[in-house]
Amino acid sequence: MNITSAKFVMSNSDIKKCPIDNKAEYAFIGRSNVGKSSLINMLTNHKGLAKISTKPGKTQLVNHFLINDQWYLVDLPGYGFAKVAKNTKQRFSKLIFSFIESRPNLINLFVLVDCRHEPQTKDVDFMEWLGVNGIPFSIIFTKADKLSKQKLSENVKAYEKELLNSWEEMPPFFISSASSGLGKEEILNSIDETNKT
Ligand code: GTP
Ligand code: MG
Known about the structure:
CATH superfamily: P-loop containing nucleotide triphosphate hydrolases
Bound molecules: guanosine-5'-triphosphate, magnesium ion
CATH class: Alpha Beta
Domain EngB-type G: 22-197
Number of domains: 1
Pfam families: MMR_HSR1
Function: Necessary for normal cell division and for the maintenance of normal septation.
Radius of gyration: 16 Å
Strand order of the largest sheet: 1-3-4-2-5-6-7
Structural class: alpha/beta
CATH architecture: 3-Layer(aba) Sandwich
Cofactor: Mg(2+)
Order of helices and strands: EEHEEHEHEHEH
Family: Belongs to the TRAFAC class TrmE-Era-EngA-EngB-Septin-like GTPase superfamily. EngB GTPase family.
């Protein structure tokens, strides 16, 4: 699939105000600074579409982008970064969970994890919660340009091992780099395959 147009539609702190026009949605979620906004810009060939920052906690609202006038990519605030004030963290979590639980057209959630890190309890617990609640998701290992191929493959294996403690099989996963464009085709193809609207 080619993305021929990507337009910012709206930012919301109130889930009730998100678009209600029945279009399919694909959302990007994960810890602050993992690279959600950068990945959205990479996928859409649009450098300034989603705001990025070296400082965690940049995305604070639910942002809808209309793709090819047909479906939405959704950029969500990050969860679980220690440097964000506690009440801000709680606000983000509430926003994220109410988004996930209230969007009937959410086709898939992409859960981003930094490929350099060991499996983090927050991410593993979050995936378990998604499983229990029947929310379809796939994993994206981000920032692959920061590791050697060898180390990357070791880290992905370690992640798989951890998840197999609670999952019968490894959920679908992708490896990406917002700087090199790695993973773009696979991620867009997976969206294309599930988007029948
Ligand atoms: P919040 O909105 O704060 O939750 O963060 P985010 O997950 O949207 O991360 P963002 O895209 O703002 O990126 C955070 C930092 O990581 C920025 O400095 C990016 O340039 C950098 N970054 C993101 N993706 C990649 C990548 O694939 N490779 C490299 N080398 N850096 C990346
Ligand atoms: Mg962001």
